[in-house]
Amino acid sequence: MPLSQLIAATTRLEDGPADGFRPTGPDERATILAQIGDGPLGNVAAISGHRVVPLPDGVELPVSGGVKVRVRLTASDTYTVQRVRVRGKSEKLLGERENVHADSLAAVAYRAGMYESYGDSEEW
Q1: Which residue in 20, 58, 88, 114 has the most C-beta neighbors within 10 A?
Q2: How are the residues of the chain apportioned to helix, strand and coil, as percentages rounded to the nearest 5?
């Protein structure tokens, strides 16, 4: 991954490792992708077509139409999964699920990548 993409992703985030997220390197990101499902027909392919942008504290999976799924590692070894819409320099958080454990990360990330992932009545 080019350094310029990592720098761009880092500057987009308003919070980061200092705000309760844990810094990740290539090994941790590979683990995150394996837990989501990074096989030829896995969840990463279904969510983003195997497109992955590294973040300082996780990964970002671009879906389409400016929507991205962010999976970020917290200090407590759980994950925060965010569905974000990016338009130019502005971002809108469409939903967030905190305290996601590794065994349910695949299902949560997959559902976050779908067009209608959660309704108003469901806790996101």
Answers
A1: 58
A2: 35, 30, 35
